[in-house]
Structures are given as structure tokens and as C-alpha cells.
Specification:
The complex is a heterodimer of chains A (191) and B (174).
Chain A (H helix, E strand, L loop, with lengths): L5 H19 L9 H12 L1 H18 L9 H21 L6 H32 L4 H11 L1 H29 L14
Helix pairs in contact in A: 1-2, 1-3, 2-3, 2-4, 2-7, 3-4, 4-5, 5-6, 5-7
Chain B lengths: L1 H60 L1 E9 L5 E10 L4 H8 L2 E5 L6 E6 L2 E2 L4 E9 L4 E3 L15 E8 L10
Classes of the chains: A mainly alpha (191), B alpha+beta (174).
Chain lengths: 191, 174
């Protein structure tokens, strides 16, 4: 990995700070922009940066969230957001062409899918806490999934909208800001 | 390109299927919860209805109903039918219940006398008298004691009438 340029380092720090600030801002339950930023950083700076940002953001959020300390849920939130960061990097690798309306549709679907994956992982964490009270794990997992279904739906729908509308323009802007061409590249900017 | 599109369509359908399944499960569970709550509510309602029925019969046993007539002697007759009163009520408490009454308590054997009903006061030539209807022979009876001493019975028919002192005993209400 090459060294970061000052501009790239500043951009990464600003995005990290923004990610944490947005995550800590009181908001409607399950409407969030963290996964978009993590996915974006993963796509622009690479899998390692995306995954690291996701892990750090959720780690800080787990302790300072306005909803309280995450407790047993914390490692599952971290894993979920790491997957989002990795997905951003993988998406960049899979898409070599310029942006178009199809890219918006793709990222919208990816946003929905990643929200669902994140919710399933965190619900598994909730199921673990149920299991500690004596409930069998499969039953606890199904109970957690079903009881959180409406919140998951909100998360999936909001992520679909956020990813579909914001990801492509934001990446365009970042690419221009970082001096790259306005196209997808196989390799992340920093490697 | 087609494979890529197919992948995303499949991904979207997967998300749709999982979300649809979990939401269906959620509403199925909610349906069960609310059905049980509804059944509990119906059971509670039935229990409460039974208790209210008992309460109603208890209240009936502690009260009585009488028909009360006020005759203003100018042709105006006002009936207060099925007036509910506590058991042990007197003719005086009955008229107090339905009208604005002024009275004078003479104490001892004479007791309370009604001096005004709904603003129509006794004077030197006319005053208020009371009767009860003897249902055995359908005649009005004017007791020779205070209305506060006449204990009411269930189904009694009583009357307060504004009559002249010129004729004695005063005419029963018509």
C-alpha cells in the first residue's frame, strides 16, 4: 500500500469524523447513513479502509450511542459494518464501467441487501442474549428476526433510498476531488 | 451484462422474499397476540357484566320507587313517576327530592310541615297538604301526622296539593 497523500488522508479523516458524528446524532430508529459512508469509503479507498472505518464507527457508536451502550450486540454490529465496508471494495472491483442509471439501481439493491445482512447479524446477537436466558438458539433467532421485522423493513427501505440516490453522485464528487477520472476503477485509489 | 443484471435481480428478489417472510411472520404473531387479548377482553367483559347485573339487583333491593303528584290547585298537575328513593324514605324526603321545598319544623309530635313547593308558599287561606293513595279501594287518604313521619313503601302513590283551609278536611287531589 502506498502512503496516503495529504488530500487523501484529510478526506479519509473527514469522512471518518462525519461517519461517527452522523452515527451519534439522534435520529429515527434504523434510519442511518453510516453504512452509505462506509460503503463509499470501501469503494473509493479499498476494502481495508472500508472495513476499518466500519469497525471503528460501530465500536465508537457502541459506547456513545444515544440509544445507550450496545453491550453484547457490539461485536455483531462491528461485524455487520465491516461486511458493508468490504462490500464497498468488492463492488468497486466488480464494476469497471462509467456510472449510469443502472449503477444507481445496483447500489440501491446492494444497500437493501446489506441492510438486511446487517440486521440478520445483529438479530443473531440479540438471539444470543435471549439464549443466555434459556431460550433455544433457533427459536431465539426467529423471535429476534420477527420481533424486529418492522425495524428491519424501515432499515432496508431507507438504505435502498439512500444508496440509490446518494452513492453515485457522492462517488463522482470524490473521484473528481481526488483527481481521478469520473469512472469506476478496478483498483482502489490508494493501492 | 445479462449475468450481472440477473445477479442483481436475484439479489433484489432475495431481499424481497426475506423481508416479506419476516413481515408476514411479524403480523402473524401480532394477530395471535391481539386475538388472545380480544378473547381476554371478552371474558373480562362477561365477568364484569355479571357483576354489574348483581350490583343492579343489589341497588334495587336498597331502593324503592314511588309515584309522586304535585297539584298546584290551579289545574296544574305534575307527576314524578317511578322516582327512585332510598329504602326508609318518607313523603317529605320524596318531595324534597323532586321539588324546591321550604318547610318549618314544629318539633315534638307535629313535626315538619311543608310551607312552600317550587315557590308557591302557604298563606292564611291556603296551604300544602299531602295524601297517599290507598290502592285497596283507590281512595286518597290524608294522614293526620307530618309527611316526615310517613314511611314510603315500594310502589306508593303520594300527592302534595295546594288547598284552601275553607273546607275541612281539604279535598283530595284530582
Amino acid at each position: 500500500m502506498s502512503l496516503l497523500s495529504t488530500r487523501q488522508l484529510v478526506l479519509l479523516v473527514v469522512l471518518t469524523a462525519m461517519c461517527v458524528a452522523i452515527q451519534l446524532t439522534p435520529r429515527p430508529p434504523n434510519v442511518e447513513f453510516t453504512s452509505l459512508i462506509v460503503f463509499l469509503v470501501g469503494a473509493v479507498f479499498g476494502i481495508v479502509f472500508g472495513a476499518t472505518l466500519g469497525a471503528l464507527a460501530m465500536l465508537i457508536n457502541g459506547f456513545l450511542s444515544p440509544w445507550g451502550f450496545s453491550g453484547l450486540l457490539l461485536p455483531f454490529q462491528v461485524i455487520g459494518m465491516v461486511i458493508v465496508g468490504i462490500s464497498g471494495g468488492l463492488y468497486r472491483r466488480s464494476n469497471a464501467g462509467p456510472y449510469n442509471a443502472g449503477s444507481c439501481v445496483e447500489t440501491a439493491i446492494l444497500g437493501a441487501f446489506l441492510a438486511l445482512v446487517y440486521d440478520i447479524i445483529t438479530n443473531f446477537g440479540i438471539a444470543i442474549s435471549f439464549m443466555l436466558t434459556g431460550t433455544p438458539l433457533p427459536l431465539a433467532f426467529v423471535s429476534a428476526i420477527i420481533s424486529g421485522a418492522l425495524f428491519s423493513l424501515i432499515h432496508v427501505v431507507s438504505n435502498t433510498v439512500v444508496f440509490g440516490t446518494a452513492f453515485v453522485p457522492l462517488t463522482n464528487t470524490l473521484q473528481r476531488f481526488l483527481g481521478g477520472a469520473r469512472i469506476w476503477k478496478k483498483e482502489p485509489l490508494l493501492t | 451484462m445479462e449475468k450481472r443484471a440477473f445477479t442483481y435481480v436475484a439479489l433484489a428478489l432475495l431481499v424481497w422474499a426475506i423481508c416479506g417472510t419476516t413481515i408476514a411472520g411479524y403480523y402473524f404473531i401480532q394477530y395471535g397476540i391481539y386475538r388472545n387479548e380480544y378473547r381476554t377482553l371478552v371474558t373480562d367483559f362477561n365477568v364484569l357484566s355479571g357483576a354489574m347485573g348483581n350490583l343492579s339487583s343489589i341497588m334495587e333491593s336498597l331502593s324503592l320507587r314511588v309515584n309522586l303528584l304535585i297539584s298546584y290547585s290551579n289545574g296544574t298537575l305534575v307527576w314524578y313517576n317511578k322516582t327512585a328513593l332510598p329504602v326508609g324514605s318518607t313523603a317529605f324526603t320524596a318531595i324534597m327530592w323532586v321539588a324546591n321545598v321550604e318547610y318549618k319544623d314544629y318539633g315534638q309530635e307535629l313535626g315538619i310541615l311543608v310551607t312552600s313547593v317550587n315557590g308557591l308558599a302557604s298563606n292564611s287561606s291556603q296551604g300544602w297538604f299531602y295524601w297517599y293513595l290507598n290502592t285497596a279501594n283507590s281512595t286518597w287518604v290524608s294522614p293526620d301526622y307530618s309527611c316526615a313521619k310517613y314511611i314510603l313503601h315500594r310502589g306508593d302513590i303520594i300527592a302534595f296539593a295546594y288547598e284552601s283551609y275553607a273546607t275541612w278536611p281539604p279535598s283530595p287531589p284530582t
